[in-house]
Automatic annotation (TrEMBL):
NCBIfam families: PRK06105.1 (NF004767)
GO term, biological process aspect, one: biotin biosynthetic process
Similarity comment text for this entry: Belongs to the class-III pyridoxal-phosphate-dependent aminotransferase family.
GO molecular function, one term: pyridoxal phosphate binding
Identification of the protein by name: Aminotransferase class III-fold pyridoxal phosphate-dependent enzyme
A Pfam family reported for this protein in Swiss-Prot or TrEMBL: Aminotran_3
Domain of life of the source: Bacteria
Entry keywords, A to Z: Aminotransferase, Pyridoxal phosphate, Transferase
């Protein structure tokens, strides 16, 4: 372990009063937290005045960076006009109407209606309920199971955490609940068999999905949910042809594909949607995060007309559509969503991402050469460098050694915030980052990696 300075007064107040998500709570009293105070462009500054490049866009969400004046103005104006109203019981507000219209315009597949939530977890929870509701409406009450994937991340509510395919979200939480199935993770580097080609691996993924569906019974399965690029599972980019192969199996059995675009929406992969980059043809879509560029919480579920009609039919039978969140369609979130999309369009943020993608790619490829890095994977403007004890055999470190988190800490000490997902260091910079800033971010990443390599050698962790 690296040396820790004593906690400041604010750090002590923090550990005395907050429960921190995704944090080893048993270590918190000795490690303390890094307390951020303000942000500007792609930089954040802590309470000690130290600056960092925010190389993760916070939690993969602050695509426009910090302190965007147009966003601040849009928020202020909305707060002055109508800080809160809802869209329950046949009420509505203009920002929600406008944002739904914009989403329909830019959606990658035909979308006719939008349901707003406050978060990605709520969006995915809603997806499951809507799939059940749809199949009840269509007289198929047994077609209810949802397929997800090992290492997927879909959120932390009871159902979305069940869809998530990570042990940390299941162990100790009595999850997953039933009606949730997990199929294989399409990570060729980790799960490809010896001598297997990527095409053979992809065919095996489709085969195991087919076997799962046949074993469970196609008439019991409503939907499959998938992130175009798996984010919080370790930035896993599926092999070419993966979604085409998967989708052919789903189509045979009338199982809808839900694309979880919570990270991959709004330019992150170099297109508006990850579905476009990965050649996915989903029926419905979940989104959040860059929907407002994280200036306010907001999530959305987007559905096509035929599915929407099933809700209309069912609510006619039942009397109402019994689902909705107090803050789903919050005016602040919706006004900021409208403004964020307007900015993405008028400043050509996606064009900017595309322009810098070759640099991002070349810097990721350079990371792949580092002695600690087994695989450096990326798609558009999101990447992950997986640290290994042995590059040749791909042998991982013992997770108890905490090599990933320590490496992230060393990178942080060099002035860049990145995120350790186990031993994969994720990078997901604000989409507005300039070329010199992106180079500086990778330079700091490499400096931290070099220090981690020295530390690993010194401690004899291999
Ligand atoms: N889906 C994906 C793909 C995500 O990455 C996340 C959050 N990292 C979620 C869903 C959950 O979103 P939230 O944290 O807003 O509930």
């Amino acid at each position: 372990m690296l040396d820790q300075p004593p906690l400041t007064n604010l750090q002590t107040r923090d550990v005395e009063s907050l429960i921190h998500p995704y944090t080893p709570l048993h270590k918190l009293k000795s490690t303390g937290t890094l307390i951020m105070q303000r942000g500007e462009g792609v930089h954040v500054f802590d309470t000690q005045g130290r600056g960092y490049i925010e190389g993760m866009s916070g939690l993969w969400c602050a695509g426009l960076g910090f302190g965007d004046e147009e966003m601040i103005e849009a928020a202020t104006e909305q707060l002055r006009t109508l800080p809160y109203y809802h869209i329950f019981s046949a009420k509505s507000i203009e920002p929600a109407i406008e944002l739904a219209e914009k989403l329909k315009e830019i959606a990658p597949v035909p979308i006719s209606k939008v349901f707003f939530t406050s978060s990605g977890s709520e969006a995915n929870d809603t997806q499951v309920k809507l799939a059940w509701y749809m199949n009840n409406a269509r007289g198929r009450p047994n077609k209810k199971k949802i397929i997800s994937r090992i290492k997927a991340y879909h959120g932390v509510t009871v159902m979305s955490a069940s869809l998530t395919g990570l042990p940390g979200n299941h162990n100790g939480w009595d999850l997953p609940v039933d009606r949730v199935l997990h199929t294989d993770c399409p990570h060729f580097y980790r799960f490809g068999a010896e001598g297997e080609s990527e095409a053979e691996f992809t065919a095996r993924m489709a085969k195991s999905l087919r076997e799962l569906i046949e074993r469970e019974g196609p008439d019991t399965i409503a939907a499959m949910i998938a992130e175009p690029v798996m984010g919080a599972g370790g930035v896993i980019v599926p092999p070419k042809g993966y979604f085409e192969a998967i989708q052919a199996v789903l189509d045979e059995h009338d199982i809808i594909l839900i694309s979880d675009e919570v990270i991959t929406g709004f330019g992150r992969t170099g297109n508006w949607w990850g579905s476009q980059t990965l050649n996915m043809k989903p029926k419905t879509i979940s989104t959040a995060k860059q929907l407002t560029s994280a200036y306010a919480p907001l999530g959305a579920v987007m559905v096509p007309e035929d599915i929407y009609q099933s809700y209309v039919d069912h609510s006619a039978q039942l009397g109402t559509f019994g689902h909705g969140f107090t803050y789903g369609g919050h005016p602040l979130g919706c006004a900021l969503g409208v403004k964020a999309i307007e900015i993405y369009q008028k400043r050509d943020i996606i064009g900017h991402v595309r322009k810098l993608m070759p640099l991002f790619e070349s810097r990721m490829k350079r990371l792949a050469e580092h002695p600690l890095v087994g695989e450096a994977r990326y798609c558009g403007f999101v990447g992950g460098a997986e640290l290994v004890a042995d590059k040749k055999t791909r042998r991982p470190f013992d997770p108890k050694q905490g090599v990933g988190p320590q490496t992230a800490k060393l990178i942080e000490n060099n002035g860049a915030v990145l995120r350790a997902i186990g031993d994969t260091i994720a990078i997901c910079p604000p989409m507005i980052i300039r070329e010199d800033e992106l180079n500086e971010l990778f330079d700091r990443f490499e400096k931290g990696l070099n220090e981690a390599e020295a530390w690993v050698s010194k401690e004899g962790l291999r």
